[in-house]
Write a structure and sequence with these properties.
The complex is a heterodimer of chains A (217) and B (810). With 217 residues, chain A is α/β, with parallel strands linked by helices. In chain A, 18% of the residues lie in helices and 31% in strands. Chain A has helices spanning 38-43, 53-68, 91-101, 193-199; strands at residues 4-8, 11-15, 21-23, 28-31, 72-75, 105-109, 123-125, 127-130, 133-136, 145-148, 153-159, 162-171, 175-177, 188-189, 205-208. Chain A starts with a strand and ends in a 9-residue tail after the last strand. Chain B is of the alpha/beta class. Helices cover 43% and strands 16% of the residues of chain B. Chain B has 31 helices and 26 strands. The radius of gyration of chain B is 28 Å and the shape is globular. The chains are: A alpha/beta (217), B alpha/beta (810). At the A-B interface, α1 and α2 of A face α27 of B.
């Protein structure tokens, strides 16, 4: 798989087109905002989205784990969409998960969507510190480098009179935001007020995710 | 039949009023009265000005007077437009008030206040004038049956607008529902003249079907603008003739200028203002303008307070503006029916001809305009093809049915297949649509606990809505018209209208653009509002509205071919067009009526293939994509293509040697599926399907969801569904829609079936005169939006003309 190198906090990370981030030195894979079971949550309101999102998200994770064989998998929040979402995880999925957990440490940082939900075998954290890096769903006040999710960043690109939106990794000096790893999730413009409040407006490094490649702007 | 001897209408309650007005009954009115009275469902074809509205009401009014103080709803009148519904009320009011008849009538559309709607439900008027969407809503109420059970007549106005679209599907299903409620219901269709009258009859009539028609013997007077200027080879803005158009406006009391797109409307309006030395009152009217602005223009038009209105199809239907003296059609007519409809807007007096001037914006359009005039003289109208009903509309109808109360699926199925568009609906497809409404209809039964409708335990054929709250969601999603994502434009606190979100995304702060005839400066976008201020900028963009591009009708295309093949050019065209065609004849060839000319020539290191199909834009667009794939297979290294209504041009790195081998029916069978997969056509139609079938909501209560977000998530749904459940009913439905509408599948098939034997291949050393217009389109499409000003085009045009060695001919 092609990746894009991202230098953040004097460490090298690899951004993959499947929207995961890999920290090579520590053999750690990072994903964010999976929102598994979003379809079920919508079905509750009679919006019947195709019920295949959880299956596809787990497959994507498993493919990555098979290829990279990381020691740690850090999920920086919103693994699940809401309380109903666990209904979308089938027995076979649990079995597969526990197989993978034998070789990889799953670290689940709670997000605003899944703070009150438990899944067997998953270790929960509100945030997680490794050296000068803090993994958290929403950035907090700290002098540490933060790797987080929550905002589902996307970037608007205008070129030759055409406008496109692309899901993106984005960071400033201190904070890196991952794109959503989910299947049915939308996005927020990196220049929107919400993201600007966190990252500021200038000196952003933006990495739009293409079909088979992560680009750099 | 000898109805003239004793006209039964002389005893009609309205006869007194007719006499007072010194009007006499039309033959078709007498016929209608007779046939409806003896139990027939009828379709009446009559030109504007022949008392069409009154014709529909003759029997209902007679019946209501005889019944004396009839309580409840007696007659339903369906109009395609809200504005038309209001107009009908005004027309009906006159005789009923003047004769002091004891008949109540009201209008009910999306603009009617909730209070009034509530009143209408408690105490329905005798005659209700409404739209297909409002009828669908009425049918979704629990008391629908009591409301309609005494209904005697349903009148469908402008029925020709209801034959070939999803709105027609929706209406047909709801008419069948009314028939179930009131088995004695009779149907009356009113229409402008139509070629395939039988089809309209089949669509509407059930009981003793009868066609009644009245042909206008006075033909309209249509001519082409005699321009002293040079008619350009390409382009659609008619800049060359603006002074001559202005002179024409000055000559008439009141003129409507029809154009084909909203962008053209803004452009034409702006250019007229620039030369408006006489300070004529000129206004602009199109569908994106705020309702109040539109109503103001319409009002001024009917009172004769303006000199000229530049309009799109928004002013095409129905409304009676008595004082309009002249119609100017700028741009290609595209179809005979459409042109007649537009021309008919002038002079609503039956015995004097309507007057119209056609302004072709380029040379091909000149031939098209000429052909259209010929066909109108022969009264050769376009056929409107009936379409097979779409699945998504059935899904919406099932939801509506559930909102009205529990239902038996077998009864519902039997009722649906009575509607003409759904005669062939398979039970299995219907059941899948039931499942779609129940829980999305997925193979994985994940949503058992979240169903929207459910089967009763004691009778598996009976379905019921889970809870009342769902009715609200249906009501917010009713209808089949899906707008592109639009944003409101605000000038200060005043709303000017709606603009496509895609256009706004390309604007930066300070950019100026033209809307509602004003130059505006983009300030910011906030909460789905586009804030603008007035601008003095001279350089401005014009919003391009996607869609609305009408393909050339097959009928007119055939006529263009026939005209082109005629040898007496000098009698037909002005000097410059004749020269153009003569040169084509010398350098290449002018195709005969049934021939397909293919020209090939090298140009700027590339190899060009031009195919003149006259198949209309949709079919040519599809053919272009298919040929790209065909060329790839033969390793000709194709680089791109451009299509218009008349032709396709492809350019490739290598010479295309086997065009006759590639261009045939096999091309369609081999590559169509791939084509549908790769382009966004099915994806876009899937969005419409998902919204119409209520799988996703247009807007969630309490949640502002912009159109863009809907588009975004429906794309995701499409991708997931296609991967996991390619046989899902909504994918099937979208695919069918694509085949039916977007790609002109049948038309393309007809052409490809016979094309291989009719190809005339011309190998040339350089571009031919006939190919210049489409080659120019290549350059235009490749320019960024900022640069598309006309003078740049002109410059480009000159460059290419030099290349083609045709500068000498003007």
């Amino acid at each position: 798989m092609y990746y894009q190198s991202i230098n953040f906090g004097n460490e090298e990370f690899h951004a993959y087109p499947n929207k995961s981030l890999y920290w090579k030195r520590l053999n750690t894979l990072i994903v964010s905002d999976l929102h598994m079971g979003k379809s079920i949550s919508y079905a509750k309101n009679k919006q019947f989205l195709p019920p295949y999102d959880t299956k596809e998200i787990l497959n994507k994770i498993f493919v990555s784990l098979d290829k990279i064989k990381p020691s740690n998998l850090i999920i920086v929040g919103d693994l699940l969409h809401d309380v109903f979402s666990t209904l979308s995880i089938k027995d076979q999925d649990y079995k597969n998960l526990s197989q993978y957990m034998k070789n990889t440490d799953f670290i689940w940082i709670k997000g605003n969507h899944d703070k009150n939900i438990q899944i067997e075998g998953f270790k929960n954290f509100t945030n997680y510190k490794i050296g000068k890096f803090l993994f958290t769903h929403i950035p907090i006040k700290t002098s540490l480098f933060q790797i987080c999710g929550h905002y589902h960043p996307k970037v608007k690109i205008v070129h030759r009179g055409k406008t496109i939106f692309k899901t993106s990794f984005v960071h400033n000096k201190k904070i890196l935001i991952l794109p959503s790893f989910g299947i049915l999730t939308g996005g927020l413009d990196v220049h929107s007020k919400q993201i600007s409040d966190v990252l500021g407006k200038n000196n952003l490094s933006i990495y739009p995710v293409g079909q088979d490649k992560v680009y750099k702007l | 039949m000898n109805i003239n001897k004793s006209n039964p209408l002389l005893l009609h309650p309205l006869n007194k009023w007719m006499k007072k007005k010194k009007w006499s009954w039309f033959p078709h009115q007498i016929e209608t009265f007779h046939h409806v009275r003896t139990g027939s469902d009828v379709v009446v074809f009559a030109p504007t000005g022949a008392g069409k509205t009154l014709t529909g009401f003759i029997n209902p009014i007679d019946d209501l007077i005889k019944l004396k103080k009839f309580k409840g709803l007696h007659t339903l009148y369906i109009s395609p437009l809200k504005s038309l519904a209001n107009d009908i009320v005004r027309n009906l009011e006159k005789p009923i008030k003047e004769l002091d008849l004891n008949i109540s009538f009201q209008v009910r559309t999306g603009d009617t206040t909730p209070y009034k709607k509530q009143k209408q439900k408690q105490k329905p008027p005798n005659i209700l004038i409404t739209t297909p969407e409002s009828l669908a809503l009425l049918n979704s109420y629990e008391n629908a049956k009591e409301f309609f059970h005494n209904l005697k007549y349903i009148i469908i106005d402008e029925i020709h607008t209801f034959l070939d679209n999803k709105r027609a599907d929706l209406l047909s299903l709801n008419i069948e529902r009314l028939q179930t409620f009131s088995p004695n219901l009779q149907r009356i269709g009113l229409s402008a003249t139509l070629k395939n009258k039988q089809d309209a009859k089949k669509w509407l009539c059930r009981k003793k079907p009868k066609i009644i028609f009245y042909e206008n013997s006075v033909l309209p007077k249509i001519k082409i603008l005699e321009s002293k200027e040079r008619i350009p080879w390409s382009g659609h803005m008619a800049t060359y003739s603006i002074n001559e158009i202005y002179k024409e406006i000055m000559k008439s009391k009141l003129t409507i200028i029809f154009v084909n797109t909203r962008a053209q409307a803004e452009y034409m309006f702006k250019n007229l203002w620039l030369i408006n030395k006489k300070k004529l009152k000129i206004a602009v009217h199109h569908g994106s303008l705020e309702k109040n602005l539109r109503l103001k223009v319409e009002n001024n038009l009917s009172k004769g307070l303006v000199d000229c209105v530049v309009a799109t199809s928004s002013l095409e239907l129905g409304l009676d503006y008595g004082d309009v003296e002249k119609i100017i059609q700028v741009g290609a007519p595209k179809g005979i029916n459409r042109l007649l409809q537009r021309v008919g807007r002038s002079n609503h007096n039956l015995n004097t001809p309507s007057k119209a001037i056609l302004v072709p914006t380029n040379r091909f359009e000149f031939i098209e305009a000429k052909a259209a005039i010929e066909e109108i003289k022969k009264n050769n109208l376009d056929k409107i093809d009936l379409k097979e009903g779409s699945f998504d509309v059935v899904a919406q109808h099932i939801f509506a049915t559930a909102c009205a109360g529990q239902f038996d699926i077998n009864d519902l199925y039997k009722e649906i297949i009575k509607a003409y568009p759904y005669k062939k609906l398979k039970l299995n497809d219907f059941k899948q649509l039931i499942n779609l409404i129940q829980d999305g209809g997925y193979v994985l039964k994940n949503y058992d606990q979240f169903k929207r409708i459910f089967q009763l335990r004691e009778n598996k054929n009976i379905y019921k809505l889970v809870n009342k709250r769902e009715t609200r969601k249906y009501r917010m999603n009713v209808g089949t018209i899906i707008e592109n994502p639009m944003l409101k434009i605000k000038l200060g606190t005043k709303t000017l209208g709606n603009i496509e979100e895609v256009f706004v995304q390309n604007l930066s702060q300070g950019d100026s653009f033209i809307f509602a005839g004003q130059v505006l400066e983009f300030q910011l976008m906030k909460n789905n509002l586009v804030q603008v201020k007035r601008s003095k900028s001279l350089i401005s963009k014009i919003p391009s509205y996607s869609g609305g591009r009408m393909p050339l009708s097959t009928n007119l295309a055939n006529s263009v071919r026939a005209l082109l093949a005629k040898s007496n050019m000098r009698d037909l065209y002005p000097e410059q067009i004749t020269e153009w065609l003569k040169r084509q004849k010398n350098i290449s060839k002018i195709p005969k009526k049934d021939e397909y000319l293919v020209e090939q020539f090298p140009r700027k290191k590339n190899f060009y293939t031009v195919i003149y199909t006259f198949a209309g834009w949709h079919a040519n667009q599809t053919l272009g994509f298919l040929l790209l794939r065909g060329f790839k297979e033969f390793d000709y290294k194709p680089l791109g293509f451009v299509a218009n209504d008349y032709a396709i041009v492809l350019w490739s790195l290598k010479e295309v040697k086997e065009i006759k081998t590639i261009l045939n029916l096999g091309l369609l069978d081999k590559h169509l599926d791939n084509y549908l997969e790769e382009t966004s056509i099915v994806k876009r139609l899937f969005r419409d399907n998902a919204i119409i079938s209520c799988l996703i909501e247009r807007r969630l209560p309490g949640m502002e969801k912009t159109g863009k977000q809907v588009l975004f998530s429906s794309d995701l749904i499409y991708t997931v569904l296609k991967k996991n459940e390619p046989d899902h009913i909504l994918l099937k439905s979208s695919y069918e829609d694509a085949k039916k509408n977007m790609i002109d599948y049948d038309r393309l098939r007809e052409i490809l079936k016979k094309i291989d034997k009719k190809i005339i291949l011309k190998k040339l050393t350089c571009i031919s005169p006939l190919a210049v217009p489409i080659i120019l389109e290549i350059n235009r499409e490749n320019l960024s939006k900022k640069e598309t000003d006309e003078y740049i085009l002109e410059d480009l045009e000159n460059e290419i003309l030099k290349e083609a060695n045709v500068l000498s001919i003007n």
